[in-house]
Structures are given as structure tokens and as C-alpha cells.
Amino acid sequence: MTRHITRTVLGTGVVLLTTALVLTGCGSGFTGDEEPSDSSALTSSDDGLTVLIGSSGDAETVAVQEALDAWSAESGTKVSLQVASNLSQELSQGFAAGAPADLFYLSTDQIAGYASNGSLQAYGDQLSNKDDFYPSLVENFTIDGEFYCAPKDFSTLALVINTQMWTEAGLTDADIPQGWEELAAAAKTLTTADHVGLAFGAEFQRIGAFMAQAGGGLVEDGQVIAADDANAEALDYVKSHLADGSFAYAKDVGAGWGGEALGKGAAAMVIEGNWITGALANDFSSLEYTVAELPAGPAGPGTLQFTNCWGMAADSPNQQAALDLVEYLTSADSQLAFSKAFGPMPSIKSAADAWTADNAALAPFLAGAEYAQFPPNEDGAADVIADFNAQLESLKTTEPADILDSVQSNLESIVD
After folding, report:
1. Any domain includes 7
2. Is pLDDT above 80 for 300?
3. Where do the DSSP E strands lie in 196-314?
């Protein structure tokens, strides 16, 4: 069974309605009570396309622009790239004005709201490469049994180790932790007066991996399971090692996130996604590090998965061309080029061997795709996770069961 996990979050105890209110106001000519548009019929015209993205930097912007230029030259259809400074805001404004981009980056925590008010075209089943996407990624963007949009790429979490600190502590490849006991032992050995053994963000988007390894999660088969004993076991494990000083939140070692903690030498190991590779190359280019799969927990291996899709506007006058462009952008050649340019992993299985050959040291990230959990995609889940994160800040002094009971209640208010 796939357990669904989450990626963003809510203010203590009460589910915020901001996202829901914004989304219900979007969509040209639709209300929250109307059904999404018929996904079997695509519009077609001579109109050019607009593509709206939220870019991680110049490398991503240039790579996407080059791909759009190549497709445009091949298809004869003009394409205009728009790089948002605030993607969520500009996306909602486009819908509210009745002039959305034809294609756009869409996150898992946005899709349910936009799908429910008819803003999105559900085109997933019409993709010629539909069966090539990892099944869990397809699930991310499936609402009420309908596959809405093509996953554009994805990331998972893994264990990233400072090679020099590992060696100086007398550890070898044989000591790379395979389970929780080994992880705790390695973290204790690596902890010194100058750095902590393991650091990670004070958030579900990192700690949730331990929940997965314990056999827990947030939502499973439509049922909220946040208060499950497995999740309490995971938080107890984390809490105990925060208390003994071998684990630490990145902010508590003077870092904004795990990658900075590793790069600055404030932590010997961190739990991070494959986006860390670009950041380390740019900011800490001399650092030598090793990537390993996250250690298994009582229930087996577990990690978290993060992704976006290529959303398509229901109001687009040229959806057929947009579909063709999505197939081009999610092809093996395009995704491998994107990966080389700015780091994400291809969302299609057919690119796995080529990506692994080019990124052998990063293969543990891709291995996680086989068992990764993903954020709940119910409307409002992002707010619930925000509240969860706020409570995790005080995990060292709070009973895990109290935190999880709160999350359970908040999730039950949004999950049908």
C-alpha cells in the first residue's frame, strides 16, 4: 500500500482557509460546485502558448527556455515563457482574470483546489507516455480517479555524509547505517564539540521520513492515520536523539537548512533531497560527500517524495499543442537535459538507466522512488502540514502523541 505524506502546513489547531479561498475564486466562468471540464476533448487553434514557471535560478530558466525554443522550431507554434516571482500568486491572478497561462508548474498541494473549481484540464490519460511515469507520481496528481497532469520531475530524501568527518571518526563504508540503531550509533560517533552527528529541518518534510520507516504516514487509502502508533514511535526516536545531542535541527546549529549545515561543517550527516547537489557545488565546492539511502526503520525503508506537474488551463484555446509540448518536455531527452542543468530526477522510468549512469554517486536518491511516500493532495493539506511543522519545533519538550492527535484532528477536517 502506498502511504500518502505531506509537504507544507497550518496555524495551531485550526485549519487555515487561505488557500481554499484563493482557489475557489479562480477559474474563468466556474464555481466550486461545478464539475471539472471534460478531459476527453482538447481545444485546438493557431494560438501560441504561454508557459508559467517558478524557477530555482538562471540554470533552470535557461534550460526551460532552450527546450521551448527547440519545440517551437519543430512544431511551428510560438511559445512565450513567463518566470514568476511568486508562482502561487501569479497563477491564481491569471485564473481570476480569465487569462491563465496555457501550461504552468503545479504543486501537489494546489491541484485539488484548482481541480474542484474547474480551472484545470485533466489530460493525463491522453499522454502517449502515460505508462512511463512512476506510479506514485501519477498518484500525486490523480484526483477522484482522474489523472490530471504530467509529473515534470521529482526529488526524494537521502542521507548525505561529510566524507572527511566520516573518515576522521574511524568509520568506513561498512558503517553506513542500514537501520535506526546503526544511524544512532553513527550519529553518536560523529558528534563532537564542533559539530553534530545528524541534522535536518524541523519539519515534516524531513522528519516524515522516519514516520514512513516506522510504517506510519498521514493519509492511507483515504483514511487519516496521523495518530497511528507507528508515527509516535518515529517521533519518540527523533526526540530521544535530539535530547542526547547526536541529532539536531539545522536552525539549532546555525544553519538555514541541512545543506548549509553540511557545507559549513556544523553537521556530519544531513537528511536532504537531491537539490542539495547544486547548492553544494555552488556554495561549498570543495566539500566531499557521500550519498546513501536513508536507513530502514522498524517497518522497512522509507523516504519522502516531492514533485510538481505541468498543469494545463481548462480555458486554454490550444490544448492540443499544449499536450504535444508536455510530451516533449517530459521525454527522456528533455528530462535528462533538465537534470544535467539544474538537478531534478526524471519522472519517467525509461530515463532511469541513463540518469543513473550519469549520476552514479546519486543513485540512492532514485532508489527511493520504489518506496517513497508523498504528501496528501487534499485541498487544505498544506495548511495542516504548516501547523504540524510549527509543533515539531518544540518536539524535544512535547509529547509526540499530543502533536499527532492535533494533526489527526486537523486532517480529518479536510479529508472526506
Report:
1. no
2. yes
3. 196-200, 219-220, 223-224, 247-249, 267-273, 289-292, 305-312
Is 279:88 a contact under the CB 8 Å cutoff?
A: no
- pLDDT, tens digit, for every residue of 228-240? 999 999 999 999 9
**What is the number of other CB atoms lying within 10 angstroms of the CB of residue 111?**
24
Residue 220 CA neighbour count, 13 Å, CB half: 15
Give yes or no: residues 119 and 219 share one domain: no
- Predicted TM-score of the model (pTM): 0.84
Q: What is the CATH number of the domain that holds 84?
A: 3.40.190.10
Please indicate, yes or no, whether residues 405 and 282 belong to a single structural domain of this protein.
yes
Side-by-side strand order, sheet with 223-224: 3-4, 219-220, 223-224
- Output the nine-digit C-alpha cell for 106: 503545479
Which three cell numbers, joined as nine digits, stand for 354?
541513463
- pLDDT tens per residue across span 318-357: 999 999 999 999 999 999 999 998 889 999 999 999 999 9
β-pairing, 196-200 with 267-273?
Answer: parallel
Q: Count other C-beta atoms under 10 Å from residue 6's C-beta.
A: 30
Element (H, E) at 71: helix 58-75
- Say how far apart CA 268 and CA 186 lie, in whole Å: 10
Q: Find how far residue 36's CA is from the centre of its chain.
A: 25
Q: Can you give the residue range of the structural domain that contains 193?
A: 156-304+378-412
